[in-house]
Design brief:
The chain is α/β, with parallel strands linked by helices. The protein has two domains: 115 residues, no CATH class; 229 residues, Spore Coat Polysaccharide Biosynthesis Protein SpsA, Chain A (Alpha-Beta Complex), CATH 3.90.550. It contains 14 helices and twelve strands. A seven-stranded mixed beta sheet has the order 3-2-1-4-8-6-9, sandwiched between helices.
């Protein structure tokens, strides 16, 4: 009886995700390279980049942002960096006259570092369109034009984009695609567009576009200053306020490698995962279900042949996600091992009393 119960639970767990994914294969937008001439875009645009200890990323990513086909104000906030970020920004200012560097103020009590940096950037920006993007995000030369064209088509005052996530190490290959699976398997885009519950919304801090009016209406980052998942909470606030929104995948015009080292990946995921799951108990339940449906199913096949169907559903789910996000098809073969890496992150997250990120401790979290 226990075996049958676990089979049914696993099948339902995967079936719901696959149904949502099938809908998103049709309706979840992907940014396309725009063919519009850059003269079409007349809004004053500010691209805002918080940077704390980003010496590894800035030489590669910042020139890409500065080389857009659409004119824009580019502001980088050097957030009390302790590496070579300051020197790199000084050199880039010599090459790009339209780059403005702001020296960040010391972190005020009650704020997370990124929210504090983003609010300072917004306060200094002159554009009617505010685009927050992380220092590790790789823009193509026509990314801004594509983004503005998408915003116009959708008539959205808030747009958030999930870049194509690049992976290098084995741990990245096991964990980073989970972002795509959660997004595409749990958030039906038609619900985002046409249903009212704020839970049917999401945001990604790697790229968020706002009209200044919408950003100010929501209270900016200040209204979410202590939130660890400020991007998700702000998107939910957008939905609750009735502000028109749109989401998209980055496709060929936006990509990112989130972490340069595995240690940073574990720390970064551990910082967000409890809040993202809705608490420790939901996190344990969801991770256990994922382990059963994606990993243990393979070990249970000798005891009941129906587990082969669960295993094939799991691989199909990963394969379809890969097709939507542009990831290599063979990358789906990592799926049976993904839960093992996930438990490593979950265990760390459950044990930590304070959240740490880039040398800062948030004891209230």
């Amino acid at each position: 009886m226990v075996m049958i119960f676990l089979l049914i639970v696993s099948a339902l767990f995967l079936a719901v995700q696959i149904m949502v994914l099938l809908s998103n294969l049709l309706f979840f937008p992907v940014l396309l390279r725009t063919k519009e001439p850059y003269q079409r875009f007349t809004e004053a645009v500010s691209i805002l980049i918080p940077a704390r200890n980003e010496a590894q990323n800035l030489p590669e990513t910042l020139p890409r942002v500065l080389g857009q086909t659409v004119a824009a104000e580019v502001l980088v906030l050097n957030d009390q960096s302790e590496d070579a970020s300051s020197e790199i920004l000084t050199e880039l200012q010599k090459r790009f006259e339209h780059l403005k560097v702001i020296e960040g103020k010391p972190l005020e009590a009650g704020w997370t570092g990124k929210n504090w940096a983003c609010q300072q950037l917004a306060d200094a920006a002159h554009g009617d369109m505010l685009i927050f993007t992380d220092a590790d995000v790789r823009w193509e030369k026509d990314t801004l034009a594509s983004l503005l064209e998408f915003q116009k088509e959708q008539r959205a005052a808030f747009v958030s984009v999930w870049p194509r996530q690049l992976t290098v190490s084995a741990l990245e290959a096991l964990t980073i695609p989970l972002i795509d699976q959660i997004l595409l398997g749990a958030l039906p885009y038609m619900g985002v567009k046409y249903l009212k519950p704020k839970s049917l919304s999401a945001g990604n801090g790697q790229l968020m576009l706002w009209t200044k009016a919408a950003y100010q209406k929501l209270g900016g980052h200040e209204a979410y200053k202590s939130e660890i998942l400020e991007d998700v909470r702000m998107a939910q606030g957008v939905k609750a306020a009735g502000i028109p929104l749109a989401l998209a995948l980055g496709g060929e015009v936006l990509s990112a490698r989130m972490y340069q080292e595995d240690s940073a990946l574990i720390e970064g995921f551990s910082k967000n995962i409890v809040a993202a799951a809705g608490g420790r108990i939901p996190l344990i339940i969801l991770t256990s279900l994922s382990t059963l449906a994606h990993t243990l199913c393979w070990l249970l096949i000798p005891f009941n042949g129906w587990w082969l169907g669960i295993a094939l559903m799991s691989l199909s789910f990963r394969l379809l996600c890969n097709l939507k996000t542009g990831r290599e098809v063979q990358d789906a073969l990592w799926q049976p091992l993904s839960s093992l890496a996930l438990w490593r992150i979950v265990w760390r997250a459950l044990r930590q009393k304070n959240l740490a990120w880039k040398g800062r401790i948030y004891p209230w979290a």
